[in-house]
Specification:
The complex is a heterodimer of chains A (about 300) and B (about 350). With about 300 residues, chain A is mostly helical. Chain A is about 75% helix and about 0% strand. With about 350 residues, chain B is of the alpha/beta class. Chain B has 13 helices and twelve strands. In chain B, strands 6-7-8-3-9-10-12-11 form an eight-stranded mixed sheet, sandwiched between helices. Chain B is globular. The chains are: A mainly alpha (about 300), B alpha/beta (about 350). At the A-B interface, helix 9 and helix 10 of A face helix 3, helix 5 and helix 8 of B. Bound molecules: adenosine-5'-triphosphate, iron/sulfur cluster (SF4) and magnesium ion.
Chain lengths: ~300, ~350
């Protein structure tokens, strides 16, 4: 009962988020310039311009275009790319694996470094380990992502000539963008993990764990982390938005052939269907991960589901 | 308030002969313990001793340092608390000479503690059965399966109905009294040689309290465990204690055998507590009804005897600190005029 209602509410909210994101982008794109005049040479005869407009459905009023767009989107048709005469979805989906690869590697680096640094800092509070971890966290947090990306290129590609700086041809190309993406988000995760751990370590049940004669490793793994994980998972879920935003920038700087780079190019070229498709896809990813975070949350924290079998 | 159980009393008097003859082994001895924060001393120069099979009750108003004394005895003080002075020996071993891992092996197995606020003392995201079973896995080397089975038996032994179902519950799904009993089951799991119970039965109703006290007595008779029992309830003291230590503002102000203390309380503070008890005993919270005034804050203790502002016998002499000295036999009191009351 509770569960079904919970899932339905989440689902409805997710759909609403998608609709809002798509609508927003749709409107911004329409008011920010005419794609036809940008794509065709200035001296194109008006008849041909009109033909293109009709073909792309740009001769209709904006509300009309919007209804038509939503209607076809509901049927799985997101239009044809203006540049590349294929369905926008096909064009975009081709690039998804590259972005997923980068995103997943970045996320893993974020989680591993962030959790490790945060837990170590909390356990060694006030020592040099703590100070180093927090310095790193502030560095990751305050450094603009494009700046870190450029710094990485300067050091590892230009100065030391260790790694390639642009493109996605080999595995070596993955290292710099993934590390950049990972580090930027790891700082925030580390800070959250640390404060969450510190709070948990002071709880009475941690003293109980000590009174029971559990050793440090067991106390941390089996009693502290399951509690500290609850807020951290939320932050990780929230950072996913940041990760995607970061991916767009990082892909652009490193010319990584994913949907982030494609988005930047498509916006420049006014390839409206492609932009819309990417935005829809990104929004969908966020909605789904949010849903997963909510489910994980309920699983990590038994107090969330209030089962009514309390007895005295 | 308290149901006096004849069975318990008779079980108690059997052992008293052994204890009085001094044959029983000293399980825990605390000498000159001083615990404080950077700002104030919270426990000052406390010395205690419990022998095998003996029950020592710690009594005193809220905030006088009973819980901290227990924590220090387990070696569990942590920031911002510092043990400034004192020696704690457990079965002849100096606790401060042991490594953290050696201490871990003793805690939960040979010495166990039941915490005052059981609901907060249980891990909110772990099933209670697992939390009990963990002790057996760590100290007895049982498999999780065996341990969880034994945990269910332990839960049943503290009088919780449907123990197999309750074992799967999370602490927030249980009442305060049930959490308290889960804590008790956890502490008893390895049949410790020393059991420290900090207000272990305060949250329980009278019937359950009597049941738990009987359980502890039985276990004590069986395993010859030493017990430190912190309570506000003088009825419980009368029922369970062999000896009593009365604490006031961080210090032990009087110690005696339970009979001696009830017959002949020497410290004005103890006499105050007894008087309150005669006048319809405890308040609704189970706390000792107030003696005029309040316990001074640890950072602003009066000069000399800490009880002076509330004491109707106070004289100028009381501006110097009275030592905890023997008055009659082994009955000690920290009052300049204790001899006059004897
Ligand atoms: N972690 C701590 N940090 C600072 N002060 C503390 C800490 N724990 C306890 N105290 C202080 O030490 C004093 C003694 O506390 P303690 O918990 O031992 O009292 P108690 O006798 O057990 O009282 P109660 O009957 O309320 O449980 C109190 O003044 C309390 O405020
Ligand atoms: S020493 Fe003085 S003030 Fe303290 S309890 Fe005895 S008579 Fe009262
Ligand atoms: Mg206490």
């Amino acid at each position: 009962m509770m569960r079904l209602q919970f899932i339905l509410t989440k689902l409805l909210r997710g759909l609403l988020t998608l609709l809002l994101a798509v609508t927003f982008v749709f409107i911004v794109l329409r008011v920010s310039g005419d794609p036809v005049s940008m794509m065709l040479p200035d001296d194109t005869p008006p008849a041909i311009v009109a033909e293109y407009r009709a073909a792309w459905g740009l001769d209709k009023t904006v509300p009309e275009q919007y209804v038509r767009f939503i209607w076809s989107a509901l049927h799985g048709d997101l239009g044809y790319s203006f540049r590349d005469d294929r369905p926008a979805l096909t064009v975009v989906l081709e690039r998804v694996p590259m972005t997923l690869l980068l995103g997943v590697c970045g996320f893993i680096i974020t989680v591993v470094i962030g959790l490790f640094a945060g837990i170590a800092a909390a356990l060694k509070r006030g020592t040099s380990v703590d100070h180093a971890a927090m310095a790193f966290s502030i560095f990751g947090h305050s450094m603009p992502n494009f700046f870190l990306a450029i710094l990485m290129i300067l050091l590892f590609s230009m100065t030391w000539r260790l790694l390639p700086s642009s493109g996605g041809a080999t595995w070596w190309h993955l290292i710099l963008p993934a590390v950049t993406l990972g580090i930027i988000n790891a700082g925030t995760v580390a800070r959250f993990t640390r404060s969450s751990m510190l709070e948990v370590l002071h709880q009475p049940y941690m003293r109980t764990a000590r009174a029971k004669g559990l050793r440090l490793t067991r106390r941390v793994m089996s009693h502290a982390i399951p509690n500290a994980a609850i807020p951290v998972v939320t932050v990780l879920g929230l950072r996913l938005g940041g990760l995607i935003a970061g991916a767009v920038v990082v892909e652009t700087v490193f010319a990584w052939p994913g949907i982030g780079l494609m988005l930047v190019n498509a916006v420049g070229q006014r390839d409206l269907p492609v932009v819309q498709t990417i935005v829809l896809l990104v929004a969908l990813t966020m909605v789904i991960t949010n849903f997963i975070v909510d489910l994980t949350y309920g699983w990590l924290d038994p107090r969330i589901e209030n089962r009514p079998n309390k007895e005295g | 308030m308290t149901v006096i159980d004849t069975e318990i009393l008779s079980a108690g008097s059997d052992r008293r002969g052994d204890l009085a003859s001094g044959k029983a082994e000293t399980v825990l001895s605390v000498e000159g313990l001083t615990v404080g924060t950077g700002r104030a001393d919270l426990v000052i120069d406390v010395s205690l001793e419990v022998r095998a099979g003996e029950t020592l009750c710690l009594v005193g108003e809220s905030g006088c340092g009973k819980s901290l004394t227990c924590l220090a005895a387990m070696g569990l003080t942590s920031e911002p608390l510092i043990v400034r002075q004192g020696r704690i020996s457990f079965l002849g071993q100096n606790l401060s000479s042991l490594s953290e891992n050696q201490l871990a092996d003793i805690r939960g197995r040979d010495m166990a503690m039941i915490f005052q606020d059981a609901t907060a003392a249980l891990n909110p995201v772990r099933r209670v059965g697992m939390q009990i079973a963990e002790v057996l896995v760590v100290h007895r080397g049982l498999s999780w399966r065996q341990a969880e089975k034994q945990a269910i038996e332990l839960i049943a032994s503290v009088g919780i109905p449907e123990p197999d179902l309750r074992a799967k519950a999370f602490p927030h799904q249980l009442s305060g009294g049930m959490c308290q009993r889960i804590m008790i089951a956890m502490a008893l799991a390895c049949r410790p040689k020393l059991l420290i119970a900090d207000e272990a039965t305060t949250a329980l109703d009278v019937t359950t309290q009597a049941q738990i006290l009987r359980l502890m007595r039985e276990l004590q008779a069986e395993t010859d465990a030493a017990m430190i029992f912190v309570t506000h309830d003088l009825g419980v003291v009368a029922e369970i204690a062999d000896r009593v230590a009365v604490m006031y503002s961080g210090r032990v102000v009087e110690t005696a055998t339970v009979d001696e203390l009830f017959e002949n309380p020497l410290h004005p503070y103890t006499r105050g507590l007894m008087a309150c008890r005669l006048h319809a005993t405890t308040t609704s919270h189970g706390r000792i009804a107030a003696i005029e005034g309040t316990v001074p804050s640890p950072s602003r203790r009066p000069e000399g005897c800490s009880f002076r502002p509330r004491c109707s016998f106070a004289k100028d002499t009381c501006l110097t600190l009275p030592a905890l000295a023997p008055v009659v036999g082994n009955h000690r009191a920290a009052c300049h005029f204790a001899g006059d009351f004897a």
